Every structure is written in structure tokens, then in C-alpha cells.
Amino acid sequence: MPNAAPARKTSDDETNYLSGNERMNSLITSVWDLSTNLQYRFNFSFSYLGSRMFTDSLLVMIATYCRLRYNYSMKYTYQYKALPTTEQKPELNLWLRICQYWYNRQLGDRFDWWEMNRSAVNTCPLISHLPELRDKPSYYSQKKYLPGLKKEPVTVEWSGKKLDLSRVPANTLQEVCKRVDIAFEGFIAGDSNGKRSGKPRFKSQSRYRSFVIEGAGLELHSCSIGGKYLYVKVPKIGLIKIRSHRHLPDGSLLKQLQFVKKNDGWFANLRLEDPTVPVCLRDIIPSWENSLGMDAVLHENDYLATSECIKLPSLKVLRKSQSKLTRISQRKNARKRGSKARRKLAKREGRQHQKIARCRKDFQYKTAHQLVRTDKKVFFHEDLNLKGLAKRNAPKQDETGSRGDKMDEKQSE
In which element (H, E) is residue 18 found? Predict the structure, then answer.
């Protein structure tokens, strides 16, 4: 029998880190268990002022220790409605157009190299050309083109329009390079599980709708009286007004800002980081008391059934809006392509689709909230292949090449 491989020796620093990490987790667990036992034993809540101040100060001390010792932090994203001025809207549209052009140019460069530097396995052409020898395009090689492209405006071949790439921040264009690299590598190599995505497509104006801003010059500037609006300082644009429908947590730091163009205007995604909140993972052991089973019913007006004999109703927002959506679509198709009336009806159709999508998303969040309010810790669901259930077997062909359904019709006649 071959000898087993020797165990890897851990260094003193790694041992100290592991022991310190275990001590920190045990400390947080003990504090949580202590507070829970006090609540159940003495039948009081920590919502009183004195107890709340004690627990809050203790948790702040633990979070500060985690941040200083282990650099723990929590990252999250809040989405707000952006309210740019009349002068800022054309600039945002120009940034989006430049990012779309830079994305398509990089993708075309990668496709060209891929077609010129590969050959078929089962065939060999008699005449072949030698392409220009160059390295495979990558994130770093394509990013090096930016300083040269920023020296003078670039002309788009099919439209003849000139785009000045120097008007867009460098970090935004570099993020577009990263987006192309992720899309192409997912098509060639696949993800960590070996699952490959589809071939990346060139983005039209309706498909490329967002860009990211980060780095120096980006900050939360101020807020209005009453906290109804926020002002974000964006490099090369200035202050942009944002409707603050949700309060920002105290101590959060703005890391990235993403602008998304939707049918009803611009939206801003604030990607925040809170260094005072530690990441603490606790192992939960499933039991009959803390577990809940779920099953998709999809029958008549029922959407979901639980193991506690509770059925949740379905929303069916598409069926309720199908007649209105069909009416708008038919009116749009009757208009001439490129006309103003067709564009207005296309925007109206897009808003109707957006309304359906938001109703579905809101229904899913409310359903999840209703399930979490049951105080269950573990949720079991059936691993269904929904794509496989939606497919049907291909009908067989007879000797004449006709389908099986036509044969059934003839037999019925």
C-alpha cells in the first residue's frame, strides 16, 4: 500500500490566525447565546434603553475588533432613482454610447483573432493565408490601447460619428475591458464548474444599458433637508441628484457607482461597504422544528405549498396584462420602421414589460418574506429541471417525411 502523503505543516502566523479566528467565532457565539438565554429565562427583551445600549456597545466592540484584526466587512448594493439635470442627461447618454462602442470593438478584436488563429480538425485547406502574428487578446493587452485612443476622436465606421473616449473616466473604460474578458472566457473556458455560456453577442443600444464609475473623485457629497434627496459627486460631471427612498446605514463607504438606463429613466446602484459589520457564519443543524419543506404546485391559483399544509396563491401578472400588451404590440407593428410613432409605442411596450417584471419581483420578495417570518432556519425544495419540463419530444417522421401529428390527423379523419 502506498504511503499516505505527509500533512502540510502550518506556520506560526497561520496557527495564530486560525486560533484567533476560532476564538473570535466562539466569542460571538457565546455573546449570542448569552443574550438568547437572558431573554428566555427572565422574559424580557433587549429593546429597553439600557440593555440596548449595552448590547449595541458590545457588538460595536466585537465588530471593531474583527475589522482591525481580521479585516471583516460586509458589502451590499442599494438602488435609487437618479434625477440628472437636462445638461447631465446628454453626457450620461454619451458615456453609455462610448462604453458600448468600446465593448463591441474589443469583442470584434477577439473574434478576429479567434477566426484567424484556428484551424479545423477534420479538414485541411489547400490555400491558407498567414495572419498578422500577435498575442492572444486579453484584459491587459486590450487595456493598453486606451491611451492611444484617447489622443483624438475615434470615428465609427458604419455611422461616421466621432466619439471622444477622453470624456469618459479611465476606470469606467477599464471596467468595460473586464466585462468583455469575463464574457469571452465564459464562452471559451467556462466557469469553475466547467459550464460554458453562450457566444457573446455585439451589444446594440437597447442591450447595453449600464456603466460603472469608481476610484478617485467619487463620493457621497451631501443630502437635502429632511433626507429626501442625496447628491453624489461624479468625476467630469459634478453633483447628481438621487431620490433617497431608503436610508443609508451609518458608517457605510461608497466603493462603486453604477448607472443603469431603464425605460422610465436613470437609476443609480450604490455599492457600499460597511467595515463595522463582521461576517460570521454559524452552522445550523436541520431538525423537524427549524425546517420547512416547499414544493411548486403550479395548479390553478396555487403557487407554492409548504410542509405545514399552507398553499400560497399565484400572481399571474402576465395573464392579467396580456391583452393590453398585445394591443400595444399590434399598434407598434402597424407603424413604419424608424418613425416617431413606432418609437413612442416601443417605449410604451417596454414600460409595460417593466411593470410586469417589477410585479413579479415584488411578489417573489413578499413570498420570501412570508416564508422567513415562519422562524424556520432551513428550507428544503425539490431540485426541478424547469427547462426540461418545458420541452417536449420531437415528433417522429414517417417514410414520406411528414410529422407524427399530421398522421394522427389523417387517422382521425
Answer: helix 12-42
